[in-house]
Amino acid sequence: MTNLSLWVLLLPLLGFIILGLAGRFMPRTAILAVGWGACGLAFLCAAISFFSMLATPAAQRTSDQVVYHWISAGTFSLDFGLLLDPLSMTMLLVVTGVGLLIHIYSAGYMADDPSFWRFFAYLNFFIFAMVMLVIANNFLFLLVGWGLVGLASYLLIGFWYQRRSAVAAAQKAFVINVIGDFGLMLAIFLIFQGAGRLDYAGVLTHTFPAATATAIALLLFVACAAKSAQLPLYMWLPDAMEGPTPVSALIHAATMVTAGVYLVARAYPLFEQSPAALAVVAGIGGATALFAATIALFQLDIKRVLAYSTISQLGYMFMAEGVHNYSAGIFHLVTHAFFKALLFLGAGAVIHALAGEQDMRKMGGLWGRLRVTGLTFLIASLAISGIIPFAGFWSKDEILGSVLAYGNQTGNVWYYILWAIGILTAGMTAFYMFRLFFGIFAGDYRGASVAVNDNTNGDVEEQEAAAAGHHHAGPVRYNSIHDVAPVMSIPLIILAILSVIGGFIGSMALFGLPNWSPLANFLPAAMHNHAAEGSLTLEWISTGLSLLAGVLGIGMAWRLYGKGFAFKQNSNPLYQLVFHKYYVDEILNAVLIIPVLALSRTLSRYLEGDVLDGGSRGISTLFRGTSTFMRRVQTGYMRNYALGILLGVVVIIVYYAVRG
Amino acid sequence: MTFDIVSFIVLAVATTATALGVIAFKNAVHSALSLILTLLFLALFYLQLQAMFIAVVQILIYAGAIMVLFLFVVTMLAPDQNESDLKDAIPWQRIVGGLLGLVLVAALSYELFTGAQITGPKAAAGNSLTQAVTAYHGDTQAFGMALFHGFLFPFEVTSLLIIVAILGALVFGRRAN
Amino acid sequence: MPLSAYLIMSALLFTIGVIGVLIRRNPLIIFMSIELMLNAVNLSFVALSHFLDSADGQMFVFLVLTVAAAEVVVGLALIVSIYRRRHNIDVDEMNIMRG
After folding, report:
1. Do B90 and A649 touch (CB under 8 A)?
2. What pTM did the predictor assign?
3. Disulfide engineering: A481 pairs with which of A369, A388, A543, B2, CB 3.0-4.6 Å?
């Protein structure tokens, strides 16, 4: 088997180093050559490895390649190794493939940005970090990759660091991610204590005591929840939309946020040892899916709708993993990467065309102007809504089917509820996605005419759109709106094609092809053979209902917004609650941030001001005083110093004389 | 009172007086002359202690060579410059220094009177060559034998030291540029 | 005469030298005081050499003599060069190291 995974790791790093050191002085074409080249070659290497792996018998598809012996102490040794198996192969293809498309797209989107080189350096760095996370063969280097993608995310969210809101969002993301890193670290400590080693090969075959296994699995899930924006650590992801839109597409929709899904799938033997932890995974996944979907219903910022939609879809993936169907989670991860990247890139194209406008109230009627964007956006919306035969249908269907089957198998009513939540969320997803679609593309253009009441939504980002290079230059006249250049539309088209056909790598058992399931067959069998097998009837019930929910959602959106989006204030308290995102930010502000700030202010005044500063002032006064005194000893008269010597001699002699 | 004691007392008084003169005379020339006398009296002490070679060297080198150098410099550098023309910047130094000096002498004397006394020859100290020196009352030949057999290396190092000192004096003595 | 008599004589001379260094401002006289101190130590050496019946002390005296000669040569050269520069050899004026 040809294994080029080391190159997949090193090429983006090389690109990052070149761009980071010399990018400032390079012309744009050279920057693109390096940035695209690094990511493109990495994708090529991944693809070569993939086809080579396909040609290899299934039993020999795992390659654990030690690159460097790092630590060796007694019985403990730690190597930097690359684990290339079907799971990491899938992730590599998604990361580098979607990454490459977004690299290409960014050339158009960021064309006017003065920090063009920096953007591509960060993108390459992100690809490197993500590959490191995916390809590491032990938990320590997983942690390294985990932290590095957090850093990449921080750098890219705060890319327009001139904007206060971007910096604040970057910090928020970083802090919450560090909570996750902390969980991962604790999990690694426990793993090391229990198994005495950190490599996957050893740890994942080790049997831990039940309590330890639960603790490890839950701590790992804390890390996953932070990285994949699950309840209650999801707050950073909507704010992460402060970054450039390609970043939202790459990091905060398609790849980085799926790291948690990947980790659960990677460490599934640990989760298998703890049914309680898996129940938590499923429960949190379901709760997050519903919760985020409700918030997405009434958002006005198009990127925020997509952000909450991402959180919701990630919830689906965890739901699948919570019922032992890890391969279904990965399947949804892959299809979601296609259509969510497409949605973000489409939203980016809209924003680009409207010179930085992100507020849905100022859009509308763009179908006539942005034909390619509109068409691809429609395909992606259909895919995420779970309409047959688009990609999202197959993966979502497999998840819901296995949740229902698991409920049926265990007889646990909670899994039926989880399934119902899944169906409900599917309907809501279809509704908010088509509300978004109609809001952007249907009806009449509202950009020039509608005066928007600014205090309707505290955080619709009029002020935030004033980015470097994306100055919100006021409404664009309808006739001057142009569809995007080929460099941006080609990635859209490729992703649209993938969103259409991407689902066919999943199981087709329902449609009379029992042996057709390329992805599930490709991934290790153990990753799905724990899943419950439901009867065909149950599968059909699930499929039918989810499809029905999707169609209903679209229909409602069509009824309400098909003629164009109109924003109406609604004083219904429930509506207000959801519209304000359950006031989570406000509650956090009141419960956490204001007390912390007040405490800090008090401490800064009294502890810092009086005690610490006072203390150091006191110390400096003390030294000043003593040295003013001691300074007088330094008279500068040589014989005066000689007197000092004599004094010393006399003291010694007298001491001996007295002592006798 | 034996001759020994009388001569010691006389010498002690004379040496102390001339030594006090060294630090008391305002004129550096007078101090230098007083120092020459002190060194001569010390040479007599050495004779009394039966160290003939040292006594002779003391007169030749100290009283002869070094003090001539001193006098030469003193007379070259403003021999009439009087230190008391300038105000003493630290007048209390005089009193404190004097008091500390008294304490030092008192403590040392107390120590020496009450400490262990060496009354007679200790044959164990020193090797046969150096014992020969005292046996022949500081005879030059015996001294030379002892110096070049037992102390050859320090002696050679001293010659190096003197060369370095001469070079240093040359460097300092050169006019700037 | 007992050994202690010579040693006390030596201590007395040494202290006189010390006081000279402390109270005089003419570097030439300070040098002379240092010579006094060296000679006081020499006296101790010779006395101890006599009473211990060993010439080691006298060897030391010989070495001290050469060191003193070297010291005087360098010291006087220094004083001359300072005098050339400042036309004043008061040690209290040499206080640029004052804190």
Report:
1. no
2. 0.65
3. A369
